[in-house]
Amino acid sequence: MRNPFTMKKKNHRPADEIQDLQFFGEYGGVNPSISDSATYTFLRAQTMLETFEGKTDACYLYSRHSSPSTHYLSTAIARMENTESALATASGMGAITSVIMHLAKAGDHIVTARTIYGGTYAFLKNFLPKFGVDVSFVDITKPEKVAEAIRPNTKMIYTEVLSNPLLEVADIPALSKIAKKHNIPLVVDNTFTPLIFTPARLGADIVIHSLTKFINGMNDMVGGVVCGTEEFIEDLRNVNDGAAMLLGPVMDSLRAAEVLKNLHTLPVRMVKHSQNAMFLAENLEKEGLKIKYPGLASHPQHETFKKMMNPEFGFGGMLTIDLETSERANRFMERLQQKNVGYLAVSLGFYKTLFNAPGKGTSSEIPEEEQKEMGLSEGMVRMSVGLDFDIRRTLAKIKEILSEMQPEKSL
Ligand code: PLP
After folding, report:
1. Nearest alpha carbon to residue 112 among 389, 99, 293
2. CA–centroid distance, residue 93 to ligand 1 (Å)
3. Range of 175's domain?
């Protein structure tokens, strides 16, 4: 039997896939036309029936199922991620919850990382038990812990490649080996590292993104995507039992068209995000600050990251600075905003730098006790470094703020 999670191209280069996209609109438009319809008409009643049964390729039925605009976007992202197919959703959480609800049923078990995005954590910890699904949270940087946690009823391994907010790196080939041994899918959230990692090539079976972040990059919408085999994506939107079709997290056509345009600049943006973050990380570490950035040799999984990365895109735009207390972290962030280094805001992947203190913010769903255990300090500031043209000027501003704060406690 064909493995429902097998992947496609061998010599795949993600930026080339984006560069080579060619979708035309009516009248020769250089961007595809936007499909401004919820439903679609058929010339023959029989074709409509066949479309319901998933037997026709080129027909659209109803926009919760699929539309030309979401199809263009999904195709583009599937090419970038080297998967056979993809499905755009209304949010990253829409993608995550659909995949999990589709693959797990009452009595099943999931193994996941103990540091993941707070919303995903809350879903797994607080919401899934209502449906009788049990979840084990383990240290994902230790594959042996993952292997130990697998039970006969385990239905998937779920992880972020670079975790939110601790920037821990999951060893995807090692996790894939475990998943394959137990014949279960490895589901991976690649939101922090589009293009930098191609998880499907590393052995992941299903790849998810919040499009809200780097991929769209403009902070003007919320969206998500699930990438996988043709078979899995068709299952996910099956009119009778597909979680995405029945739960209904559908992306609007207008939004899909906008994300697709922004995707074309993603390779250049990722390179710049990475260059800027590397520059700040190196220089702030030299100042004696506690910096976590996967591009630094001091990052515990620096070598794992290097082994898996597409090197032309660098180490990404995310870094953390541990200022130890929430008072210092708050003061630092307020001053950063006053000096227009960026904005005190949740989310990431924007052209301006964004920062927040996730212990009390996006990871607040994680109990304080657990936060401590996993090394999530209340003074930790997470920065999504922007596309600043002159990053030296930004560094100078940050240094000024740090020297203002010096008398409080030596840094
Ligand atoms: N995955 C990660 C790693 C995230 O950081 C987020 C949001 O911050 C999500 C998923 C959820 O995405 P969305 O806000 O688009 O639903």
Report:
1. 99
2. 6
3. 14-263
State the total domains in the chain. Answer: 2
What the block records as the tokens of 272 is: 């710049």
| Ligand 1 close to Cβ of residue 210 (< 6 A) | yes
- Domain assignment of residue 411, yes or no: no
Q: Are 274 and 282 in contact (CB under 8 A)?
A: no
255 — pLDDT class (breaks 50, 70, 90): very high
Nearest CA to ligand 1 atom 15: 92
For 209, list phi and psi in degrees, rounded to 5. Answer: -135, 150
- What confidence tens digit (pLDDT) does each residue in 179-227 have? 999 999 999 999 999 999 999 999 999 999 999 999 999 999 999 999 9
Residue having the nearest C-alpha atom to atom 13 of ligand 1: 92
Ligand 1, residue 347: give the atom nearest the CA: 8
Query: Is the C-beta atom of 117 inside 6 A of ligand 1?
Result: yes
Ligand 1: centre distance to CA 210 (Å):
5
Give residue for tokens 């227009």: 340
What's the start-to-end Cα distance of the chain, in Å?
A: 59
- Nearest atom (ligand 1) to Cα of 96: 10
Predicted TM-score (pTM) of this structure: 0.95
Q: Is the CB of 83 under 6 A from ligand 1?
A: no
Q: Could you give phi then psi for residue 343, rounded to 5 degrees?
A: -120, 140
Do 197 and 275 share a domain, yes or no? Answer: no
- Residues 80 and 19: their CA atoms lie apart, in Å, by 10
Asked if residue 4 belongs to a domain, the reply is no
